[in-house]
Amino acid sequence: MAGKVVTRFAPSPTGFMHVGSVRTALYAWLWAKKNNGTFILRIEDTDKDREVEGSAEHISESLRWLGLTPDQGPIFQSKRLDVYKKYADGLREAGHAYPDGEALRFKIPVKKRYHWHDQVYGDLTAGEEALEDFIILKSDGYPTYNFAHIVDDIEMGVTHVMRGEEFISSTPKYLSLYEALGTTPPFFVTLPLILGPSGQKKLSKRDGAKDLLDYRDEGYLPDAFINFLALLGWNPGTEQEIFSREELKQAFDISRIQKSGAQISQEKLDWINKEHMKKLPSGEVRDNILIRLPPELQNEKLIPIIFERISKWGDTAGMLGAGELDFFLRRPEVDKKKLAYKNTPSERIEKNLKLAAEALKNISENNFTRDSVKNALDLISANLETRGELLHPVRYALTGRSSSPDPFIISEVLGKNETIARLESAI
RNA sequence: GGCCUCAUCGUCUAACGGUCAGGACACAAGCUUCUCAAGCUUGGAAUCGGAGUUCGAUUCUCCGUGAGGUCACCA
């Protein structure tokens, strides 16, 4: 197509952003970036009754988190009342609008059936039933959405209008307005709905849609979140699923946007997030985990143990909350029955624990590492029927848990003295 | 209800009218392990139904069915 691509994201400031609206923003941003175009943020604040204080800032912050930086904006419609007035006057003078009380109503020139082309849905049609003379300026002087968004899209040179499927049926209104204004409509890029987790309904706040910033606070990576969102209603046509931001810009294409609604899946999001986490430099992993650990657990050695078990930073708190790391903080309570491995008699368990303690005492304090502990214990278990009858009681004595990371690394973290003390306490 | 849109594994999805209907998440089993996690391997799992067009329909057409959207001085 000729000319520069201009897209916009035009939310109304009526609350927080959820996944559905962000996906629209993402696609508009991707398309603009892919084409070296312009991405505009426009706040459609023309309903002062429904407006929620702070939500415009909240929207900007959400976009900032995801790195969907607008090239222009935020532009507030409430500050452009003169523009709408000018257009409205023009329509009125041309006989395309007439007063209705304090309000101004658009006069539908011809009630007819409209056929138009959508970049995603193909040829669409909607009938005269959608065409009643509609309000363009409200009695309070503010324009309606129907009018304001079209004026702005014209004024701002928007080339691709991206929005949800719910706007298909009102498109005849827009087309008749474009006609009356003597303007060629932009490309319509209608996006499939995002469905709530419960079932088949459009995602909404009532349906349990989460505030986007909650995802940030749970410790998802912005690039992973974008990756996940992009794949919800679009696919690259290849089997690649993990995309960097740059790769996404390259690969994204309107022609591969899906028509049917997509249900959001936390599992897939977590998986994608983990895949992105694995690519992070170790310093970043370290910082993100340490910052979520209490002072007593500021230990580098815990990082790989935790990293392996989380799919987002916030899961660290989950592990803490579930007590999975308590044994690093204090000596566990040892239940004698749980010390046993399968049917191994308690005398054998006791003997094995003693052997373990003896062996570990022979390791020097500054060589008390995962490897040396493992070697020492391996020598003992080589003479046993199963490694379990040694390793299970050792692990349980150290942690008080029936499942945990391996006892070697735990020993290293606890240190020689504490490790041996716990073994002896269990004996 | 009128009008509009959509329809492939549980979920996200792939397949110029010709594929054993592919991949991923999730799930299950096995391997590895003392357990957990991770990793590797394997497996089950789908074209909504009925006509038609065609040598051949997931794919094109029609009719059903189902689901969703929309019918404001809300966006």
Helix- and strand-based class?
alpha/beta
- Give start-end ranges of low-pLDDT stretches: none
What characteristic shape results from the CA principal axes?
elongated
Number of helices: 18
Percent helix: 40-55%
Distance between the termini: 79 Å
Main beta sheet, described?
A: 3 strands, parallel
Order of helices and strands: EHEHEHEEEEEHEHEEHHHEHHHHHHHHHH
Strand-residue fraction?
5-15%
Number of strands: 12
Q: What spatial order of strands do you see in the largest sheet?
A: 1-2-3
**What's the mean pLDDT score?**
92
Question: Radius of gyration over alpha carbons?
Answer: 31 Å
Give the arrangement of secondary structure elements.
Elements: E1 6-9, H1 19-34, E2 38-43, H2 55-66, E3 72-76, H3 81-93, E4 97-100, E5 103-106, E6 114-118, E7 122-126, E8 135-137, H4 145-155, E9 160-164, H5 171-180, E10 187-191, E11 194-195, H6 212-217, H7 222-230, H8 245-251, E12 262-263, H9 266-278, H10 282-290, H11 302-307, H12 315-321, H13 336-339, H14 346-361, H15 370-381, H16 388-399, H17 407-414, H18 416-426
Parallel strand pairs: 1-2, 2-3, 9-10, 11-12
Antiparallel strand pairs: 4-5, 5-8, 6-7
The protein binds one RNA strand of 75 nucleotides through strand 5, strand 7, strand 8, helix 4 and strand 12.
